[in-house]
Amino acid sequence: MASPEPGTAPLHPQPPDLRQRIGRRVLLSLVLIWGLGSTVVLGVGNHFVAEAFDRALLDDAHALAAHVRGGQAADPPGTPLQLDLTPREVGLLRFDQSETVWFAVYAADGSFIAGDSHLAPGVVAAGSSHAFSHLSQDGREMRRATLQIAGPPSFTVVIAQTTAERTQLLRRLLVYSGLAQLWLLVVLGSWLLRGIERDLHPLGALQDAMDQRDAADLQPLPPALTQQASTSDVQRLGVALDGLLARVQQSLHAQREFAGNVAHELRTPLAGIRAQAAHALAHNDPAVWRSEIEGIAQAEQRASRTVDQLLALARAAEGGIALTLQPLALHTLVRDVLLRYLPRADALGVDLGAEGLDQAVVVRGNIALVEGILNNLLDNALRYGRGTPPRITVALHTEPGFGVLRVTDNGPGVDATLAQQLQQRWAQGDQGQRLGHGAGLGLAIVARYVQLMEGRLELAAASDTTDGSGLAASVWLPLAPNAPAPSSTLPTTP
């Protein structure tokens, strides 16, 4: 797919910067909180302001009811109800600097007694003595309080007041509380944005360091980039990047080592093949041709085996990066490998036997690595363990926590001081150097495979030979969970 021309808009919009994204979300959350807080303040303020004004209206209604006269037991019969207030007192009752106040008094039969006749009483619920309600009078919104006096005498007092003052009070409450909340949220938002910038600064420094780093630079990150971070997430990211760089470095090292090993080990057999081919071309004798071709075939076999071993070592070097260990029936795997080696052993006249394969031994390992271990141990034993008569025994048993695989031959064996050295690359014993076989990689592969499976390798003199010669290579692998209990005694050679 062709890349977009310079200056053209990308097919997919670029995602926002992390700082911008977090900042927008924080600010949006603060705005929502401010709006919600203002709504709550308005609702709560409206409730308590209305309650205060309603209580004041009800107090005025009680004060007005206290001035209603007539209808008492001491009064002459037929004395009508009347409001005992002078015009001056009525003026004081109606006086308010910003509101209009109306009132009315009605008898029990609904007849008007005093006040404003156009002010009708509200509906009072049964069991209650007063009620509050809204009404619209002459285009103005008013709040009305209706008070019923049970008597005797029984009458109703109604008082109403416009709501301009309470509305103005609510507006001031909303403005002042909203401004106070807004100021607090601005301060909080600034503090949060600075905190976000401070916490994300190590990420920016980490990005700049990775952008400026050369592709060949796989060294760990400078500790100052992550250790001074204020959050553990950045520190964990730094640890993860260091681990990734270490794994990449390990992989590149294995590749370079593999390439160098191949170049080193194939130089000699290829030179021999070239020399034998040149010698064969220089002669017309078919016997010479056959001899040189056989030599070329043998050199090719040695080169192929060396390449296979180098590949195995390269895979082992990378095995620590991604290796799956699972329960493995070791007795079954050993039996299958031995069956494949029987024809070769018979052709070489080697007595290849087995012990302990009738007992189930389940270890925690990798099938490819275990096969590689057994293949290399058997190959070494068939090459170098040539006693009289040659005999190789593969034994299997369990120890507490481990399954033990032992390959024993009756060959010349190795010195105790040389056993550890043979587990290194390119190390060969005297027998291997005399025979000119191999490159000293077999036991190194075994040691590496055992290490990857968290086991151990032991090389010792064979204990079942009459002259004390021979080599016993023992591989200890951890038993799988719920594996059978270990046997109480070691197997013996019949």
TrEMBL record:
Extract the GO molecular function terms from the UniProt entry. phosphorelay sensor kinase activity
Q: Name one Pfam family in it.
A: HisKA
Species the sequence originates in: Acidovorax delafieldii (Pseudomonas delafieldii)
Report which reactions are catalysed by this protein.
Answer: ATP + protein L-histidine = ADP + protein N-phospho-L-histidine
Top class in the EC scheme:
transferase
Could you tell me the membrane topology recorded for this protein? Multi-pass membrane protein
Q: Where is the Histidine kinase domain?
A: 261-481
- Note the SUPFAM superfamilies from the entry: ATPase domain of HSP90 chaperone/DNA topoisomerase II/histidine kinase, Homodimeric domain of signal transducing histidine kinase
Q: Does the keyword Transmembrane apply?
A: yes
Q: Which UniProt keywords apply?
A: Kinase, Membrane, Phosphoprotein, Transferase, Transmembrane, Transmembrane helix, Two-component regulatory system
Q: What is this protein called?
A: histidine kinase
Q: Which PANTHER family match?
A: SENSOR HISTIDINE KINASE CUSS, SENSOR HISTIDINE KINASE YKOH
Tell me the domain of life.
Bacteria
Q: EC number(s) in its UniProt entry?
A: 2.7.13.3
Q: Give the transmembrane region(s).
A: 26-45, 173-193
Task: Kindly report the protein's main subcellular placement as a broad class.
Answer: membrane
